[in-house]
Amino acid sequence: MADKITVGYTHLSGCTGCTVALADNYAGLLTLLDKYVDLKYMPTLADARHIQKVDVSFVEGSVCINDKLAVEEIKETREKSAVVVALGGCACYGNITRFSRGGQQNQPGHEAYLPIGDLIKVDVFIPGCAPTPQLIRNVAVMAYLLLKGTKEQKDLATAFLKPLMAAAAEGNSACFCDLMTKVINQGLCMGCGSCAAACPVNAITMEYGKPQGERDLCIKCGACYHQCPRSWFSFDVVSNYEAINEAIMAALQ
Amino acid sequence: MGAELGIYKSCVSARSTDKEILKFAQDGGIVSSLFAYALDAGIIDGAIVAANKEFAAKYPAKCIQDSSNFDMIEPFRPIPAIVNTKAELLAAAGTKYNISPNIALLKEATRSFGLDKIGIVGTPCQMQAVRKAQLYPVGMRDVGASIALAVGIFCMENFPYQGILQLVEDHAAMKMESVKKMEIGKGKFWVYGKRGQVVQLPLKVTHKYEQPGCHVCLDYVANLGDISTGSVGSPDGWSTVFVRSKIGDSVWAKAMAAGCFETQPIEKVKPGLELVTKLANEKISKNKKTLEGRATFGVGKALRNPYI
Ligand SMILES: Cc1cc2nc3c(=O)[nH]c(=O)nc-3n(C[C@H](O)[C@H](O)[C@H](O)COP(=O)(O)OP(=O)(O)OC[C@H]3O[C@@H](n4cnc5c(N)ncnc54)[C@H](O)[C@@H]3O)c2cc1C
Ligand code: SF4
Ligand code: SF4
Ligand code: SF4
Question: Is the ipTM of this complex over 0.95?
Answer without folding.
Answer: yes
